[in-house]
Amino acid sequence: MVQQLLLSVKDAMVRYSEEPLFENLDFNIHEGVRIALVGKNGAGKSTLMNIITGAQELDDGERWEEPGTTIGYLRQDIVPKEGETVFEYIFEEIQDEERELHGYKVDIVAEALQLDVNAKMTRLSGGQLRRAGLARALVEEPDILLLDEPTNHLDLEAIEWLEEYLNGYRGTLLVISHDRTFLANITNQVFWLDRGELKVSPRGFKYFDEWSEMLLDQEARELKNRKSIVAQEVEWASRGVKARRKRNVRRLELVREMRDKLKADEAAHRRATQKIEFEPIKDTDASSKIVGEFYNVHKTFSENGKNIKILDKFSLRVKRGERIGILGKNGSGKTTFLKMLLGELEPDQGRVKTRKELEFSYFDQKRSDLDPTDSLKKTLCPGGGDYIDVMGKQRHVCGYLKDFMFDPSRAQDKVSQLSGGQKNRLMLAKILANPKTCLILDEPTNDLDMDTLDMLEDILMQYKGTLLVVSHDRDFLDQTVTKILAFEGEGKVETVIGGYSDYLEKKNGTGKEDTPNKKPQPKQKESTKKASKPKKLTYKLEHEFKQLPKKIEKAEKEIAEYTERLSVNEFYMEDPDGFHEVTRDLSDTKAKLERYETRWLELAEMKEEAEG
Fold it and tell me: How far is Cα 400 from Cα 375, in angstroms, rounded to an integer?
């Protein structure tokens, strides 16, 4: 069944300078699709959203919208009005006669997002303003809902609630987010802005990496072929005699144009595929195994006449080299824990001990270390000069800024001119130039694009010191930490070895228990053990075991065939739908092969155990 077309943009051009941001831009948005909008910072994601809302005028082309279509937009920045309550803000765009229909949603959404609907908007923090904006967008229920970084400042419980809510949303979604897990869980289509071109994947973000790598690999093969053709043309031109040159002036001009276009395309491809190379960060502390110790710590705060328990009989030893992820609801104690470790807060009872000579590098999500009046260059080189010390080596500040995806020509720009994501990148550049023996990152992934996120993950994987990360980005935690501290509220802190996935397994009761106070199970009698041990696999399992090698071999052949078809340079240009279909089949077959191999190993172990 063909979904109804809600909005269409054809041959659009948007120009802010001599070089257009978009040219010949085409896309369609249909009813019920759930789109992940991805691209590097500055690729034009916000501009594309403004084109959809109609706020961005087109310099050329046309924008068509189905009459009666409503569009809602959660923006990054929300400016509160004096005296306006959260409730009034949520209902600001809803007509009086419709408010009764939407009233019940306010309570549901506000409770899930931990919002006081009677609070004044001007009294809210930045994170609470974002939550109010999200509540308003969800309550309005437009036909097309645009969400720009909706998970920023949300805890994991709220993010999981939002996923469930959006998966039941009847309208169309278009979402910008750095949270890979969030995008993978809610989308079924991808808009990829790559070097001024919009590329569309018919599958969700879960398959984006595989799809985008295939497109880039195909582009690399096409560039290689073009390079060979241009080389032949250049050779012909250089061998020509004068008479022939006169007759072929136009061909010589075409050769030059081909060569210049090839150089430009190769440079663009290199920029699209470049990865930040960072030297491994050396372990600067090999003296003590203990970084900090909490012993029987109690901490409470008073708010509106109530005592809020943050830590209760909390004991923990932080060892050198540990990689700890910290998660929990807002106000559950994460920041209090970090401030105690840094020596900025004292416990009500108990003892917090840290090594005197220990040095911390601290990434503050409020970016309080950045002076908005300073330039980028002064932020990195506060003492003046053009060079910055990066782990013992002198680097020119412009080259170092380029490592963190800044245009060196912006070195004299003020910090106040940067976007939220750019400020985070600048903070990371400052801290990671010379990270200390203990690195503390408080929500470092907010507002980062995925390329910067990949870069940060790579750097942290090479860091040898002690790492503490406060984050609600599940994929990021899985990639960077080996222990989770989950602040559950009411002074309860859960410790789990592993990443977020391991914490989730334990929370849902599917993981292995590692509680030291767990009572040992009574030993099973030896005779019972022997009686319950199978002598051999059942007929059904034995048959499955014998059939699996054939299935594995068949899947491997199919993968080879799909890969060969995708390696043909002209495939995508001649048949885009066929290319996407083969890409999908390849991904499904790879997953099938992995299941077959895993099952074969399970049955092989069972067979080996049964046979003694």
Answer: 15
